[in-house]
Design goal:
With 514 residues, this protein is α/β, with parallel strands linked by helices. The protein has 11 helices and 24 strands. It is globular and about 80 Å long.
Amino acid sequence: MAYDYLIIGAGPAGLQLAALLERDGRDYAVLERGSGAGTFFTRYPRHRKLISINKVHSGYTDPEQRMRMDWNSLLLDEPDLLFTRYSPRYFPSADDLVRYLGDVAAGLRVHYDVEVTEIAKDDTGFTVTDHGGQTWRAANLVVATGVSQLHVPDIPGIEHVERYDTFDTDPEWFTGQRVLVIGKGNSGFETADALVEHAAVIHVAGPHSVKLAWQTHYVGHLRAVNNNFLDTYQLKSENAVIDGTIEQIERRPEGGFRIRFRYARTTERLRELEYDRIIACTGFRFDSSIFAGSARPRLVIDDRFPDLTPAFESTNVPGLYFAGTITQSRDFKKSTSGFIHGFRYGARALHRILATRNHGAPWPGQQLDLSPESISEALIARLNRSSCLWQQFAVIGDVVTVDGGTARYEEEVPVAYVHDGGLGKAEHRFIATLEYGPNHDTVDPFDIDVPRVAENDAVHAADAGYLHPVVRHYRDGELAATHHLAENLENHWDLPTVHQQPLAVFVKECLAGA
């Protein structure tokens, strides 16, 4: 069985790419080890509430703009196949996502119950062997398996504790007990919050400070939907968040556990603490065990993710591409590639990269009149409408290339791919992105005593902290000038004197003499 493209994994990323390949009539197949699409979400999150928002009533009438508030739908040609039709809940159930992904997969070439046991590579391409001994071959392999394994930190004795991926989530099993949750991410606080009504004492431990998503603007940090536990700590309800390192976990002869805990910031540096139960909620990692030496990708970030080029390709295995949450090594804890509302656009960008490399297709775009007014108007229109630039802030941008007396507008290009030469050389190039301002992740946005730039302040736009458009001009590949558009409370960056005219002047000055 030989294909041009073989996709491993029928989760949201694999299905997104498959839908685009299907639309273009490409030769592909998807291999899924589960009996249906979205197998990961049949188990996770363990308490079944997603943290990806589902804002059914957004106020937008434009389908493109509505995707800014729809974090679960894929980018499909069928206008009715939207996740917002599957649940009215702002934080929906994971079961609804599984149902949605099953309907998406219905029209795609997905092979279920195919567990990949080995991936090898030779001069002609990739050979994938499944659990039944059958082999599948492809010139291009796309791995979209997600982060399927629990990341287990190197703590002596951690093998004795319960794990987020396997523990019994029934809170009644924890009634009256002292519980330690290891991990300060959403899975840790999701677990702690579920036990509040039953456990006697709950401690959530980790070596780093709790980071709140509403402050950092990284949606993978602790979300408000999971942070009720912080209330129980600060209002002295027998629970606590403890900062430091667990140096040893030991079983007690009489039952339960004793840990040696080194505090991060108190004079009592080392202390022994005792618990009835310990649960490791320490994040996830990519499973690279299926790769033979000839196809094994280089890993980064504590070996949790594959190392990728700007084209989503392995840095050491040509032809091996990745899609989905495992592409977050490109913007780790900064943007949104770890989540559906981010990686759906990354998967579409990968599809365009493959079409360019393998089928001679140019990056989708359109010609513009070579005038500052035409260029600035096109940028303003897209910045006010695009869901991709909104979701993949600072990572994907729109590009206007001016070269040889022509201007061409290309949408949704990974910024790093442009810098890596993916669109070729050009005398003038403008890249427009949406970005937060400097130090946005360290300032409390609710502190009214902290000075901030006023709304629609075009003069001080470069100092704005909230999401706003940034247009950069490159001359012969080198950064020549940067223009910030003033932030706006309702994200309307189209006021004539505040946004439109200053941008047109900027473009005109950049192109002077062109």
